[in-house]
Specification:
The protein has 160 residues and is an alpha+beta fold. The chain is built from two helices and nine strands. The chain has a five-stranded antiparallel sheet with strand order 5-4-7-8-9, covered by helices on one side.
């Protein structure tokens, strides 16, 4: 009685060789190694990115409210407390992340970073007060947000 066994590659064999598995593991390791620094940078800037997003959204909400309601809308900023919100929205205030501070806050060319309150007006014709804020993260990152006074749209700059 003769038994037939298959050795080596053939139509009945399925699976991966050790070299194929090692190549896949090496490629995955290389990809993770290259992507890890970017991932860590994103995590460290999370607080600053959140503050940027929240403040830009508040500016957009105030602009939208002014145009839609045909009335002046106000963005209230409390720099000492680190909060801000659009007036008339049931006092919904947004808190800056604990590792983000306001370094510079200017409204109509008046420095207000140490004031109790700063008010930025958005007008029904789509314009606004002059407004500039520089946010500083505890990791040493800075970001500048300012309004185009003609369109009242926020602009963002990374400051290195």
């Amino acid at each position: 009685m003769k038994t037939s066994r298959q050795h080596g590659p053939g139509p009945g064999r399925r699976g991966f060789t050790l070299i194929e598995v090692m190549m896949v593991v090496a490629i995955m390791g290389l990809t993770l190694t290259m992507g890890l620094p970017s991932f860590l940078r994103v995590i460290h800037k999370e607080g600053l990115r959140k503050a940027e997003y929240d403040l830009v959204e508040a500016c957009r909400d105030a602009r939208r409210a002014a145009i839609m309601n045909n009335a002046v809308a106000v963005l209230d900023i409390f720099p000492v407390q680190g909060t801000f919100g659009v007036g008339g929205t049931a006092n919904k205030q947004t808190q800056l992340p604990h590792d983000v501070t306001i370094d510079i806050l200017g409204v109509n060319f008046i420095q207000l970073e140490h004031a109790d309150e700063a008010r930025v007006h958005f007008f029904p014709n789509g314009t606004s007060d002059e407004f500039t804020v520089v946010l500083h993260s505890s990791t040493g990152s800075y970001i500048k947000i300012y309004l185009d006074t003609v369109t009242a749209l926020p602009n963002i700059e990374d400051i290195r």
